[in-house]
């Protein structure tokens, strides 16, 4: 067969490829060959949406061009023949696209890594429907993940394209805002007004290439592509399939090949594999209505099937409701419905739907070319997966479109709310006659296959709907007898099925009046309240300006480490341990080195003798961390780096890394906190804080009331969208330029020096931006990519890139520390806490990292917002054989906030008091001395608490919740409040800042700081500081790339204090420059450009470098006292389905004291994003390990961060104004990145209250975090 070429367009440019490797994905082609790096790689499994592009292709069934969003990481290059590919760069060739503009100006970007994907998901929707509904927008973007923003600004920006954008004031009468009426006329209610932006004009879009329109009129030809490991045949007729199958018996038939390609791509096998793809057979691409039947070909995607059924089936909307919770539109547009059907998997929503409709499947035999038509029930009735023979293929599915008086009801629950993988699904077909049910067909996906509960369905027949509703418990009691009781989580799954049945009956009985926990579609209220400042055209401070890179993020122009290309660039991939604890007996890389394109294998033996394998150990890297770059004779966790394969391309490197053979001698592994306690496996001696034990015990024994208990909080994966990444470029004479995704320039420079034994001034570190970090790229963790790249570049004398695959990143890097706390508490009858004794156990993982420092925070700040007269905390830092846990946003404080709230809950329940009442009674107040020894000053927490009560209408909501719970048997509500109080800046070497301000003699200003922009808005805040200090418009000021050649010894960027320290340094530089410019400005009557040029001509210094520290002593503060506190309060209203464990947030109100905000948009974005990250910590984010210590939740798909569909229905944030501030604060502002995360504990308390409302317990209930759906169900139904 002749080798084929494929023909397609990218952004209007025609491309012809001869015999492209069929394993090549669209992502790698457009990024590496076309250098269109706006399409990002975030997960490489279709779970995050960062690689979303749009495919335009001619749809024969509709006779028009359709545009579909797809994950380019899932699409093989051969699948885009005759298609037009549009990337984020392609929609903004001559101008910024309205989507990009609204996303940027609407503050929908922070780190920006996910922004191109969101842009293109929305673009696909607008190309097909210029005026989408809010529901359609939510569906379009539900497959895109964002870790920074909390989604609200993205949703609000995109809702502006809808006729009914919703929001707070969108629904106000007479254009008035109901939230603002009162005594605060100066408050703004929205950060952005989209009505002033250009309207979307679909006639201005890039056209479908005429050449493709002409080509699509000609018959499609067969494809034959021969790759290194894969050969693909794509015939154009079934007869051709028969011929190829006979000639090549060892073949695999595929439809889209999505799953097959993923499996093959992750394998290291070198055998030649043959696929026969059915996607080009015209007969299988048809969808038609014939004789009352919908017949849909098997070459069509699940998305195409859904669209056709929706348009042509009388029950299309009901029939397809189950797909509202399908993982992503991008996946649906790629996945084959036929592939799903042949899986016969219970987790497949399409399998369950098809069995419920009992559709007919058309089957073709490759053996004798015969055709047959069987029901899906017959297809699934088999001891194997299906009744299909190996020689049979599905050609079409057939739905009955002549159904009358038929209703469909569907159900799906995943591990988090909204689009997710399936735990249980169900579809019920009900034939009704008035209020009488004539027949019912019930199918549920519970265990292995979808299951038809035929006998159970008969119980519905000839019954009235009221009768079924009133006797539900009588006829559903033996539901579990239909299933294998040995399946995992049997009782949980049975309760989910029961909930589905109950929902169905309620829908039948009450119609549209019945409301359950369905996904919100069009009733959102978003509000951002802040003090308005007047835009005078000069002073930028206080204005809600967009992120410095916002437009570049949205347009795909922002470059990250993986986007950088250098001549001769090599790529590294780590070789990882597969054992949790073992001696390494031998390493054999010979199979890997035999692969074409592999250059070298490296490990600890390749570190120069002048260097060290533990570059963070010792005083130079501050934390004295014993983490090794490469394992040395022993591995201590599954995922520890043993060595690295270096190859000419990253795909080859990753495949070859899996071929390195490691021989182990297993050693006993410690995998849990309890095992570490028993083995006395400690990182260091116990850390002790507070009073002596005798005094605490005396207080406990002498108290009127005493309780004790134990509570735990799990770890949390960072899921920064940009994985750990570094490119090291050797220059000359042992000099290197390092491009790294890191929070610390100086740390990267020093650790490189220590690693290779080369002076630090031989290394220049450059950091343009970081695609999210949250503490996970602070010190050691970013070294997992950078240090092996340094070793390789030093040895091979070529540039080396190490960009971790998401799976490797999650397996290698540390998480938030899990903590178990045993507590004893003494308190009075009125709820006043008198004494607390904490004993905490912190899971550090296999090495030290930040664990001792984090544990110090856990111990010293354990009282959080409360005043506790007698307090003692002892912290044990445990060594386990898991990832080495590290810094994470909040740095130990989220754990202790949760623990303290659990204690307050315990006290409140013990006394029969309200949680908030006990909380308020024990608040520490301004002037009190915290147990860390610092006085509370410049703090507005109590004011935030009271204002939050007012904003949320606290008393009213409590009454409404009680009324609701009294009348709702299964769905319960809880409302709770939380507080945060975060002292800043942090005393020590990390609170020193340096800056360089340079004025070009034409008047333009360049600013360099040592702080890293990673989404927190540091850069634009620094620009605003410089604008005020110099009296210049912000447009005249540019912030340059961070580099060790500009600002030396810069502290790690973290702790929410970047603007504090770097802003002060910039302010000082500007003041120094203005001193020299003052006479020239006076002579030029304030004309900046003239004054600067005259100063230049007179040899006046036009650049200034300054180093600052926070002055404490001169303002009466002790050396380590926080200068101020960023504080806040939050009210959460949650709703819980106690039959399923699913929940939703009905309302979240947050009030924060950010001082005089430098930038309300940035601060509110940090508040919303921080809260959503805390929400995930409390609910859906769970680290799951197997019994061998391997992390099972090791991908962006398996690890569940919050999604668009988890955003609260009402999300309101207010910045408090007028709180006292510290003179050293930069323009009276406060840092805000970390404090809002602690407010997530309110979600846990609200859900706990909902459980209590269901159970009405006789003793206090205290539960661990996270509250997953399974845990919520379990706790709601325990006796």
UniProtKB/TrEMBL annotation:
It comes from the Eukaryota. Its cofactor is Mo-molybdopterin; [2Fe-2S] cluster; FAD. Mo-molybdopterin binds at residues 743, 774, 889, 1055. Keywords: 2Fe-2S, FAD, Flavoprotein, Iron, Iron-sulfur, Metal-binding, Molybdenum, NAD, Oxidoreductase. Residues 4-91 form the 2Fe-2S ferredoxin-type domain. [2Fe-2S] cluster 2 binds at residues 111, 114, 146, 148. The active site is at residue 1234. FAD binds at residues 349, 412. InterPro entries: 2Fe-2S-bd, 2Fe-2S-bd_dom_sf, 2Fe-2S_ferredoxin-like_sf, 2Fe-2S_ferredoxin-type, 2Fe2S_fd_BS, Ald_Oxase/Xan_DH_a/b, Ald_Oxase/Xan_DH_a/b_sf, Ald_Oxase/xanthine_DH-like. Transmembrane segments: none annotated. This is Xanthine dehydrogenase. It comes from Mesorhabditis belari.
């Amino acid at each position: 067969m002749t080798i084929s070429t494929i023909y397609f367009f990218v952004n209007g440019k025609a491309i012809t490829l001869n015999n492209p490797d069929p394993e090549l994905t669209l992502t790698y082609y457009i990024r590496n060959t076309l250098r269109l790096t706006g399409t990002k790689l975030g997960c490489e499994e279709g779970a995050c949406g960062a690689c979303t592009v749009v495919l335009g292709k001619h749809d024969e069934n509709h006779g028009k061009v359709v545009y579909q969003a797809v994950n380019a990481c899932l699409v093989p290059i051969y699948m885009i023949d005759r298609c037009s590919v549009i990337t984020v760069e392609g929609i903004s060739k001559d101008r910024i696209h309205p989507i990009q503009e609204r996303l940027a100006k609407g503050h929908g970007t922070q780190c920006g890594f996910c922004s191109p994907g969101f842009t293109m998901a929305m673009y696909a929707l607008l190309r097909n429907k210029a005026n989408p509904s809010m529901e359609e927008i939510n569906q379009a973007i539900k497959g895109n993940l964002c870790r920074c923003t909390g989604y609200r600004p993205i949703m609000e920006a995109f809702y502006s394209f809808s006729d009914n954008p919703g929001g707070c004031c969108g629904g106000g009468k007479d254009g008035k805002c109901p939230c603002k009426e009162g005594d605060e006329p100066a408050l703004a209610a929205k950060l952005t007004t989209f009505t002033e932006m250009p309207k979307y004009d679909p006639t201005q879009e890039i056209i479908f290439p005429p050449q493709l329109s002409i080509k699509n009129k000609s018959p499609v030809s067969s494809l034959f592509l021969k790759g290194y490991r894969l050969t693909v045949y794509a015939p154009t007729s079934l007869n051709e399939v028969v011929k190829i199958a006979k000639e090549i018996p060892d073949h695999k038939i595929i439809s889209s090949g999505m799953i097959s390609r993923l499996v093959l791509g992750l394998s290291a096998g070198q055998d030649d594999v043959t696929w026969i793809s059915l996607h080009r057979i015209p007969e299988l691409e048809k969808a038609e209505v014939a004789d009352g039947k919908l017949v849909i070909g098997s070459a069509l995607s699940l998305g195409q099937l859904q669209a056709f059924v929706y348009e042509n089936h009388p029950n299309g909307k009901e029939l397809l409701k189950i797909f509202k919770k399908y993982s992503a539109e991008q996946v649906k547009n790629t996945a084959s419905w036929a592939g799903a059907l042949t899986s016969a998997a219970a987790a497949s929503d399409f399998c369950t739907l098809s069995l419920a409709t009992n559709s007919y499947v058309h089957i073709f035999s490759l053996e004798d070319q015969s055709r047959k038509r069987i029901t899906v029930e017959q297809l699934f009735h088999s001891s194997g997966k299906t009744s299909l023979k190996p020689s049979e293929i599905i050609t079409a599915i057939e739905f009955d479109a002549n159904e009358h008086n038929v209703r469909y009801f569907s159900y799906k629950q995943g591990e988090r709310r909204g689009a997710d993988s399936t735990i249980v699904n169900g579809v019920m077909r009900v034939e009704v006659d008035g209020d009488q049910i004539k027949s019912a067909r019930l199918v549920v996906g519970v265990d292995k296959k979808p299951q038809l509960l035929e006998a159970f369905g008969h119980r519905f027949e000839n019954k009235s709907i009221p009768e079924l509703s009133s006797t539900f418990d009588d006829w559903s009691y033996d539901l579990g007898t239909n299933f294998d009781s040995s399946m995992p989580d049997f009782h949980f799954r049975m309760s989910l099925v029961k909930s589905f049945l109950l929902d169905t009956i309620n829908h039948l009985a009450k119609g549209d009046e019945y409301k359950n926990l369905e996904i919100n579609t069009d009733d959102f209220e978003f509000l951002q309240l802040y003090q308005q400042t007047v835009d005078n055209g000069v002073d930028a401070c206080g204005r809600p300006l967009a992120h410095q890179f916002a437009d570049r993020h949205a347009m795909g122009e922002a470059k990250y480490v993986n986007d950088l290309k250098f001549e001769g660039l090599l790529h590294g991939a780590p070789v990882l341990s597969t054992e949790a604890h073992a001696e390494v007996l031998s390493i054999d890389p010979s199979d890997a080195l035999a692969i074409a394109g592999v250059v070298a294998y490296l490990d600890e033996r390749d570190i120069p003798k002048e260097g060290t394998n533990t570059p963070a150990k010792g005083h130079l890297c501050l934390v004295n961390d014993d983490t090794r770059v490469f394992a040395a004779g022993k591995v201590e966790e599954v995922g520890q780096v043993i060595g690295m394969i270096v190859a000419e391309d990253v795909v080859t490197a990753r495949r070859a890394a899996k071929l390195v053979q490691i021989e182990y001698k297993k050693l006993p592994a410690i995998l849990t906190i309890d095992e570490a306690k028993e083995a006395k496996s400690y990182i260091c001696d116990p850390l002790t804080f507070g009073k002596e034990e005798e005094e605490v015990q005396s207080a406990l024994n002498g108290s009127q009331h005493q309780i004790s208990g134990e509570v735990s909080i799990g770890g949390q994966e960072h899921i920064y969208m940009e994985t750990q990444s570094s490119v090291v470029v050797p220059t000359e004479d042992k000099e290197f330029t390092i491009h790294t995704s890191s929070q610390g320039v100086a740390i990267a420079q020093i650790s490189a020096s220590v690693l290779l034994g080369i002076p630090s001034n031989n290394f220049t570190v450059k950091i343009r931006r970081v695609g999210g970090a949250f503490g996970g790229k602070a010190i050691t963790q970013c070294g997992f990519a950078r240090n092996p790249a340094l070793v390789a570049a030093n040895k091979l004398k070529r540039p080396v890139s190490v960009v971790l695959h998401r799976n490797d990143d999650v397996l290698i890097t540390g998480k938030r520390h899990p903590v178990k706390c045993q507590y004893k508490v003494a308190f009075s009858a009125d709820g006043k806490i008198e004494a607390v004794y904490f004993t905490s156990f912190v899971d550090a993982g296999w090495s030290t990292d930040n664990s001792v420092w984090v544990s110090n925070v856990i111990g010293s700040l354990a009282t959080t917002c409360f005043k506790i007269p007698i307090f003692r905390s002892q912290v044990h830092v445990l060594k386990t054989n898991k990832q080495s846990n590290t810094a994470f946003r909040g740095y130990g404080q989220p754990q202790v906030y949760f623990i303290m709230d659990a204690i307050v809950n315990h006290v409140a329940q013990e006394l029969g008091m309200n949680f908030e009442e006990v909380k308020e009674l024990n608040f520490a107040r301004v002037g009190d001395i915290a147990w860390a020894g610092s006085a509370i000053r410049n703090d507005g927490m109590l004011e935030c608490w009271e204002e939050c009560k007012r904003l949320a209408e606290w008393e009213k909501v409590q009454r409404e919740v009680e009324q609701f719970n009294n009348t709702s048997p299964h769905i319960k509500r809880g409302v709770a409040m939380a507080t945060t109080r975060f002292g800043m800046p942090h005393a020590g070497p990390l609170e020193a800042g340096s800056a360089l301000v340079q004025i070009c003699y034409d008047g333009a200003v360049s600013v360099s700081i040592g702080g890293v922009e990673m989404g927190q808005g540091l850069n634009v805040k620094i620009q605003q500081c410089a604008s005020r200090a110099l009296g210049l418009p912000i447009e005249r000021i540019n912030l340059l790339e961070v580099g060790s050649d500009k600002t030396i010894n810069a502290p790690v960027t973290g702790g929410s204090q970047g603007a504090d320290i770097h802003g002060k340094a910039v302010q000082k530089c500007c003041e120094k420059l203005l001193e020299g410019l003052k006479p020239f400005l006076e002579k030029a009557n304030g004309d900046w450009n003239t004054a600067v040029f005259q100063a230049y001509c007179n040899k006046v210094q036009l650049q200034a470098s300054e180093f600052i520290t926070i002055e404490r002593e001169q303002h009466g503060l002790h050396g380590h006292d926080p200068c101020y506190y960023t504080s806040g309060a939050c009210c959460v209203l949650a709703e819980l389905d106690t039959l399923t464990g699913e929940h939703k947030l009905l309302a979240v109100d947050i009030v924060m004291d950010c001082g005089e905000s430098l930038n309300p948009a940035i601060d509110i974005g940090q508040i919303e994003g921080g809260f959503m990250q805390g929400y995930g910590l409390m609910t859906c984010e769970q680290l799951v390990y197997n019994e061998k210590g391997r992390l099972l939740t090791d991908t962006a798909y398996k690890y569940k961060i919050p999604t668009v569909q988890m955003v609260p229905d009402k999300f309101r944030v207010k910045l408090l104004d007028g709180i006292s501030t510290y003179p050293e604060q930069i323009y009276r502002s406060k840092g805000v990145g970390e404090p809002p995360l602690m407010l997530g504990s309110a979600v846990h308390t609200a859900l706990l209250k909902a459980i209590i409302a269901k159970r009405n317990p006789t003793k206090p209930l205290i539960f661990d975090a996270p509250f997953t759906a399974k845990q919520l169900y379990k706790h709601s139904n325990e006796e």
